[in-house]
Amino acid sequence: MDENKEFRNAIHEASIFLLLDAEKGEGESLAEKFGVTGYPTYMVLNAAGETVDRWIGYGDPDSFLASLQGAVNDPSTVAEKFARYEASPNACDAEKLGDIYSAERDPEKALAMYRSADELDTESNASLTAKIFHTLAGGFFSETFSLEEITTGADAVLAIDGDDNTMNLVQVASMMGMIGGRAGQPDLSRPYLMAALEATEGTQHEGMIKARRELLLEKALHIDNDLETAVQLKRDSMPEGWKDSPDDLNNFAWWCFENKVNLEQAEKMARSATELAEPGQEKAMVLDTLAEICNELGNCGEAVALMQSALEEDPENEYFQKQLERFQDLLGQDNRT
Amino acid sequence: MRSNRYMAPAILIAAGLLILAGCAGQGDVTSPESFDDALALAGHDNSLVLVEFYTDW
């Protein structure tokens, strides 16, 4: 049977489906009304327009349909779910409310609900522990939660036994790498990285193999400080034909710039990308990469010229205007010394 | 500058297209033309409305 048709039928049997562009027409005002900030956002509403459930991201078809079916089975509104939880606290309502608050980008309310679910649930729940970590980690970037709180959440995931925790370990290692980098503590991710690498050793799962490659790259870069290996792993991870793709060349070059490695090669890649890129926004984006690399290599004068070219390609871009001013300031400082 | 296109996992895009291309405006199903239309249909069928908010980024 056609799986897509089966999926479509399931959606139509369970609901009235409405697709809205959040930047056009009534989609724009409704996105604002419902506080939609991530895309795609899915909202399940009753006939009165009240929210029954919401989530961000597609996931896979099975989990998508499970979420929709969950709303059909329990069509109570968020307010009704909360009233039910307050009258009779239970782990199921608490976790669902945590999911909804999380999709509403309210990490404090989401965390309170997930923690309540964790207390009410007498059995160990790896998925809930992972949700608590993700809520804490998400709150790092908005400075809602401290590094200590996040580390405690990561340690809780690390403490879970069992093969079904492998994906959680991979996600924790990846997030802690990002957070450690942002906090100027690259070593922070070490225990999570090592645990995730151990858990994924010998994996045959395609997604896990890909994730493991990323973790090995992270380890080479931030734990072992083995830059040569890191660059080789990055090169190995590039898709076929990447040397002919301006997008891939740009992203490899940008990765080099971000990590301050392989900059001479990065400059060559970015120059190739500028030749291959389509005029307009794509070319401007690559010129910005090349400008950053030139500046990093001590050629601030060319960085200024490149940003002027980027603005010719994408004149309305405020970020590129700021970049031009930044490089002009740096050039002025260089000329004064 | 990092390219946003490169960052979007291919698997998510594929799943998204499945929904975007597959569920809106199917010939054999009554599709709502607006939000109010969707709510009215849900009231009539005693069902729920599933809204997908997307952008063209």
UniProtKB/TrEMBL annotation, chain A:
InterPro entries: Thioredoxin-like_sf, TPR-like_helical_dom_sf, TPR_rpt. It comes from the Bacteria. SUPFAM superfamilies: Thioredoxin-like (SSF52833), TPR-like (SSF48452). This is Thioredoxin domain-containing protein. The lineage of its organism: Bacteria, Pseudomonadati, Acidobacteriota, Candidatus Polarisedimenticolia, Candidatus Polarisedimenticolales.
Automatic annotation (TrEMBL), chain B:
Keywords: Signal. Residues 1-26 form the signal peptide. It comes from the Bacteria. This is Thioredoxin domain-containing protein. It comes from Candidatus Polarisedimenticola svalbardensis.
